[in-house]
């Protein structure tokens, strides 16, 4: 059965507070594990030296926390491994490889990766090929560093090429790396309307590496219980499948940014009611 220590705090909605405040908050609330959003103002890698990373690792360890997933900002910044420009793709691959190396320094086992924006006026098969080739290169670094890469499908607002559990499963097979896994986001799948958590479990099986467990209307990435998604059913399905990974709290709605700890506390309260 899924346990409360499989729920991971995340700093997305803490961006109006310092990173130290987030770490203190996660420890204060009793979390053991965190997903670390690698972006400004908290952890933009261009502004960090290797010594800074080591200092951050000590801060995290001193609070009894562990980073279970590093998530570079890849939805807003100019990052796309599906871009038609080979130089753009090469820079994007290098971006992910640098973060893989940092994940290893932080003793974190996973780093989230996505396909990036796909142009509507480009050939879909070409974009798929570019994405596959890029992931193959990124996986070489991941294998060297011992980092698992959960890849996430996006909504059609971000890409029309990579939107479903079937897409993830197919890409994992085509890339052929043991380090490439799948990520299921309960709100993204609801917005996309292509899959349910049951589909992700069936399609990915043991390759389901990570879950963003959030509510929505759909859309919003809300605290569990604050939207209309069937999260009790999703939790039961994950339990029934024997899922052993983490449930990340990727809370993104701006209603949470002024009092992020309350949102995290409310999330814990929901899990307290629904976990055995």
What does this structure look like?
The chain has 276 residues and is of the alpha/beta class. It has one domain (4-274): Divalent-metal-dependent TIM barrel enzymes (TIM Barrel), CATH 3.20.20. It is 42% helix and 13% strand. The protein is built from 9 helices and 8 strands. The protein has helices at 19-28, 50-62, 86-105, 124-145, 165-175, 186-192, 197-204, 231-241, 260-274; strands spanning 7-10, 33-38, 66-72, 113-114, 149-152, 180-185, 208-212, 247-248. An 8-stranded parallel sheet has the order 3-2-1-8-7-6-5-4. Strand 4 (113-114), helix 4 and strand 5 (149-152) form a beta-alpha-beta unit. Helix 3 (86-105) packs parallel to helix 4 (124-145). The longest helix has 22 residues, at 124-145. The chain is globular. The termini are close together.
User: Which architecture per CATH?
Assistant: Alpha-Beta Barrel
Name the helix and strand elements from N-terminus to C-terminus, one letter apiece: EHEHEHEHEHEHHEHEH
Largest sheet: 8 strands, parallel
Please tally the helical runs, counting DSSP H or I stretches of 4 or more residues. 9
Low-confidence regions: none
Question: Rounded to an integer, what's the Rg over CA atoms?
Answer: 18 Å
CATH class: Alpha Beta
Mean pLDDT: 97
Span between termini:
8 Å
Say how many strands there are: 8
In the sheet with the most strands, the strands line up as: 3-2-1-8-7-6-5-4
The helix content, as a percent range, equals 40-55%
Coarse shape: globular
**Count of structural domains:** 1
CATH topology group: TIM Barrel
**CATH superfamily label:** Divalent-metal-dependent TIM barrel enzymes
Taken as a percent bin, the fraction of beta residues is 5-15%
Structural class: alpha/beta
């Amino acid at each position: 059965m899924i346990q409360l220590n499989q729920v991971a705090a995340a700093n997305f909605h803490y961006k109006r507070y310092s990173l130290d405040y987030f770490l203190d908050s996660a420890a204060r609330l009793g979390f053991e594990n965190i997903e670390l959003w690698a972006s400004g103002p908290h952890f933009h890698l261009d502004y960090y030296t290797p010594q800074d990373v080591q200092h951050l690792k000590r801060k995290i360890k001193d609070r009894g926390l562990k980073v279970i997933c590093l998530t570079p900002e890849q939805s807003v910044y100019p990052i796309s491994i599906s871009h038609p420009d080979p130089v753009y793709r090469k820079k994007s691959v290098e971006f992910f490889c640098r973060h893989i190396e940092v994940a290893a320094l932080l003793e974190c086992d996973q780093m989230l990766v996505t396909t990036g924006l796909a142009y509507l006026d480009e050939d879909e098969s070409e974009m798929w090929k570019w994405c596959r080739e890029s992931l193959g290169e990124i996986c070489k670094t991941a294998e060297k560093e011992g980092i698992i890469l959960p890849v996430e499908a996006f909504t059609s607002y971000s890409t029309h090429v990579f939107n479903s559990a079937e897409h993830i499963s197919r890409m994992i097979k085509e890339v052929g790396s043991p380090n490439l896994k799948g990520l299921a986001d309960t709100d993204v799948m609801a917005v996309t309307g292509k899959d349910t958590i049951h589909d992700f479990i069936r399609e990915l099986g043991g390759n389901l590496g990570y879950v963003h467990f959030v509510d929505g209307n759909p859309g919003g990435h809300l605290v569990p219980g604050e939207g209309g998604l069937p999260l009790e059913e999703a939790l039961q399905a994950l339990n029934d499948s024997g899922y052993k990974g983490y449930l990340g709290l990727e809370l993104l709605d701006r209603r949470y940014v002024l009092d992020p700890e309350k949102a995290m506390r409310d999330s814990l309260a929901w899990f307290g009611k629904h976990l055995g």
